[in-house]
Amino acid sequence: MPETPTTPRARRMVDLSSPVVWAAAALLALLLFNAVVNPGFFAVRIQDGHLFGSPVDVLKNAAPTLLIAVGMTLVIATRGIDLSVGAVLAISGAVSFTIIDGSSDPSSPATAAIAIGTALAVGLVLGVWNGFLVSVVGIQPIIATLVLMTAGRGLAMLVTDGQIITAESPAFTWLGRGYVLGLPAQVVLTLLVLLVVAALTRRTALGTLIEAVGTNPEAARLAGVRSRSITWTVYVFVAFTAAVAGLMTNANVSAADANRAGLFIELDAILAVVIGGTSLAGGRYSLTGTVLGALILQALTTTTLTMGVPDEYVRLFKAVVIIAVFLLQAPRIRAALGRRRRGARGVTSPDVPPTDAAADDVRPLTPAQAANSPTTAMPDAAPSPTDQGVLR
Amino acid sequence: MFRKTLVTAMAVAVAFGATACGGGDDSSASGGSGGDGTITMGFSQVGAESGWRTANTASIQQSAEDAGIELQFSDAQGEQENQISAIRSFIQQRVDVIAFSPVVETGWDSVLLEAQRAGIPVILTDRAVDSEDDSLYETFLGSDFVEEGKKAGEWAVENWGSQPTFVAELQGTTGAAPAIDRQQGFADAIEGTDNIEVVASQSGDFTRAGGREVMEAMLNSNPEINAVYAHNDDMALGAIEAIEAAGKTPGVDIQIISVDAVRDGMQALADGQINFIVECNPLLGDQLMELAEQVVAGEEVPKRVVTEETTFTQEQAVEALPDRQY
Known about the structure:
The complex is a heterodimer. Chain A is mainly alpha-helical. Chain A contains 19 helices and 6 strands. Chain A folds into 2 domains: about 20-330; about 330-390, no CATH class. In chain A, the strands form 3 sheets. Chain A has a two-stranded antiparallel sheet with strand order 1-2. The longest helix of chain A is centred in the N-terminal third of the chain and has 29 residues, at about 110-135. Chain A starts with 5 loop residues before the first helix and ends with a helix. In chain A, about 45% of the residues are buried. Residues about 1-10 and about 345-390 of chain A have low confidence and may be disordered. By secondary structure, chain B is of the alpha/beta class. Chain B has 2 domains: about 1-140 and about 280-310, Rossmann fold; about 145-280, Response regulator (Rossmann fold), CATH 3.40.50.2300. Chain B is built from 11 helices and 12 strands. In chain B, α8 links the parallel β8 and β9. In chain B, α2 (about 50-65) packs across α10 (about 285-295) and α5 runs parallel beside α6 (about 175-190). The two termini of chain B are about 15 Å apart. At the A-B interface, α3, α6 and α13 of A face α1, α2, β7, α7 and α8 of B. Chain B: Keywords: Signal, Sugar transport, Transport. Chain B: InterPro entries: Peripla_BP_I, SBP_2_dom. Chain B: It is found in: Cell envelope.
């Protein structure tokens, strides 16, 4: 049997204890499911000089959620949460469209620039407010941001007078419906933000500092990390991403709907982060996981729409898939599945167990192992000594 | 402008459960029917999910002012819970009459019973409730959605019946009366016409964003689609953008029927992007205030009052557009 020896090597390359791997597997499974159930799902063609097809729709419609989820990842890594992003999104859209609608020359680039600038500035101010409540006043993040979550839509409605504002402006149309190199502008913008964040947090110590704050704010502070400014900054950043997402989603339909724009997007963003394997308890985070999480959510929506699942069942379908992903990620379930798999193999092919045992050595941290060997459990439970070295 | 802002601010305050105009001030004096004879109406609106809805809100606010009726306006933001709590707060404030457009059809019996026990008459506007007991409300003022669906279906049969037509249906919010009835009316009208087939039917939640996303997915899964029946203009407008992105021409390659006739929809109709619109008249404020006065005075009113409505073709839209109020 030529295949058997390669199995452990493959195992070594893929860390099965990582939730990111399971998120990737879930996305892959979802796409495979589509390939079978919705033939033509992957048919991407060039249409008027840009790519067109379901995969492109998934990317485009996932962009606003993903953008916010990137910001949310950093917030959650600091052991925080921001419920107000949907409201910030609505305010950003409301402010920009009201400016364009009220200007004497709606189609001029200057008007668009003012509108975009003002919307982003308002977003930043709201972020500063959230960050202030959390980092300076010390209110629990869920409560602090709940204030703006409920009041924010009211603010947006005040701005729009409770109306749905429609306005056409070339710059805005581009934000929502434009293309860069055949890809939707929304996707490209989101990718840019993602790359900048990845570079800033992973190429510098910033990511480690954020994780330190989330793991133990007090210890981080004592170690010389400026916890307060880091916490404050991530709230400002997530509000910024929400403001950008607000420009995108409203531009996509050329209308600002204070009531409905970005409704429940905060929950989708949090879900994307969690599916991606970042713990709500703070600390370690994974941007790759977040990207996968956001794509899974949107792929699910597009799948149900493409299949024509009746609306009554769509949420149920989503719930089932998401619960399945979480179960796969849960260490206990995986441990149980692993035992069963080993047991089954042991019966069918007696020569496999030794190699499997070898694989177990490189597979870190099933709960049982964690309990048995505290030394291997250390790196995941707390920042490793080398990490702390970076902090100092 | 400032006035409107004030009204909105008040709406927001009420929506968040703050019982505006609480004790002491003079507005509570008019609370009990009688006194100076001013009628206080509590109105709970669905939300501001579409241009139609905002026109409806504006009409009610304007008509209340003209009729000298004090309006407590509350926006439910599309949530039944908000609406129930708004109605409860109206009951506590002892308004003279409660009017509301139910977010969904079911689940109203207990709160309507509370209003009945408090002796406050209830008028339904625009959308009906699904209740065994029709004594829970005085009257239902609104459009006949089944009829609207029928009008759309009849036009479809007349204009699409001669060649194979694959229709994508963009439904409204699942469970909402207009979504259910417009689907029903349309299905009834096209029944027996072999050439017309509804190949996909999904909820776009009455919003542009919803209409766009659903249409994108449908165009990918059912490339044969050559017609759209949207339960409101906003979803049709979202669908137009999806159709354009797919490189097809809305109104030509893919013909569109829509319901509502709001300004943006009429503009698209006049521009040839939509082919036919069935009107659903939101300007029922005057009729509502008249009914409210009758109900408060204890007069008998019919259980069902239908608003006056018409249909528009592209040519009629060009003519009607300059005078369109909303």
